Amino acid sequence: MPDYYIRTPEQNESRGPFDPMKLQTLGEAGQLTENSLYYDETKEEWVPIALNKELCAQVFPERESLKLKINKSKKEIDQQEAQKDPGGHSVEAMLDAADGNTAEKKTLRHKKESFNKAVSVSATGLGFMMMASSIFLLYPHFEVIRVIFDESNYANLINFPFILLGLLDFVLGILLFLSVTEVYPILRGRGMLTLGFGVYVGWALTDPILTVIAAAAGVGIFLATISKRYSIMLLSVILGIAANSFLAYLATVGRFNDFFQSIVFQIIAN
Question: What letter does residue 34 receive in the DSSP assignment?
Answer without folding.
Answer: T
